[in-house]
Amino acid sequence: MSLRNAWGALIGFHLSLLPALIKYGRNITPRFLAPVSMKIILPAALTGLAAGLGLWFLWPYSVGQAGFAVRLSALGLSGKVWPPFIIYFTLVNPILEELYWRMILTSASPYPVAVDFLFAGYHLLILNLFVSVGWLVLAFVVLGAASWFWRQISRYTNSLLPAVLSHMLADFSILLVIYRLVNY
What we know:
Blueprint lengths: L5 H27 L5 H25 L5 H7 L7 H10 L1 H12 L9 H14 L5 H25 L3 H23 L1
């Protein structure tokens, strides 16, 4: 699988998480399925949707469209590939990432910790293809805060459901904004 292909990189990343998820899987399932109050779920969901809304408004200042579609196309993201990619990325990626980052590499600390910044930092590997250093710094701070938020909500509720839902809506809203702005 090629790291220069979005599907290859994503599936390769997901396969690389499987050994840890399998090893620690017995400890994950009960927390992952724990029910949570709508008083927690709804704000978490809205927080996730805010990611796409933020991108929509910041797009002209951060990425713009100059060359963006060409760079996405070089990664294999164009035309009919987009809808299945968005569906897979939205439904699978947040579950695997939350299991890994919030269950396996987590911390009980109420304060930001190294794992929050590792989560933020690994996203910069992709973002650096599209934005300048200044926007990478902002993305690092926002992603570090998101990681901390998802870790805290998982710790508080003893469930991954709010974090997974929020993460799904963040990924979906971001990809939908990119798809809309690049393809119209």
